[in-house]
Amino acid sequence: MLPSASRMRRGDEFAGAIKKGSRAGRPTLVAHFGMRSGDDAPPMVGFVVSRAVGDAVTRNRVKRRLRHLMRDRLERLPRGSLLVVRANPPAASARSERLAAELDAALDRLLRRLEPRGARTDGR
């Protein structure tokens, strides 16, 4: 799964990403992205799966699937970043391919906002 140094555990880390960061929503998930000021630590990722998603078994399954998908995308995040992935109720019945596509779309949108204006060379 995720390396221990990249797992978000404290409430203030979650709050920092959710309240002060930017957000990208998709039908199955919402990603909140923030940066720690002056910190060169590895990126940290946390997951929020509410009771609206389903019972405990379903919530844990969704969380495991998201953790697995995020493990392969961790190197895309800049150092010092905080990412919170919040699952929406449709995530419980979504196929892994759809979760992966929506996670990629949300990450692309959030990371694109970090780039300075005019820095893109691919025409987007």
H and E order: HEEEHEH
Low-confidence stretches: none
Main sheet attributes: strand count, strand direction, barrel closure: 4 strands, mixed
Number of helices: 3
**How many domain modules?**
1
For the largest sheet, list the strands in their spatial order: 1-2-4-3
**Approximately how much helix is present in the residues?**
25-40%
CATH class: Alpha Beta
CATH architecture: 2-Layer Sandwich
- Quick one: how many beta strands? 4
The CATH topology annotation reads as Ribosomal Protein S5, domain 2
Structural class: alpha+beta
Shape: globular
- Strand percent estimate: 15-25%
Radius of gyration: 14 Å
**What integer is the average pLDDT?**
89
Distance N to C terminus:
33 Å
Protein name: Ribonuclease P protein component
Subunit structure: Consists of a catalytic RNA component (M1 or rnpB) and a protein subunit.
Catalytic activity: Endonucleolytic cleavage of RNA, removing 5'-extranucleotides from tRNA precursor
Family: Belongs to the RnpA family.
Write up this protein.
It is a single chain. This protein has three helices and four strands; from the N terminus they run H-E-E-E-H-E-H. By secondary structure, it is an alpha+beta fold. The protein has a single domain (about 5-110), classed as Ribosomal Protein S5, domain 2. The protein has a four-stranded mixed β-sheet, with helices on both faces. It is globular and about 40 Å long. The relative contact order is 0.22. The model has no long low-confidence stretch (mean pLDDT about 90).
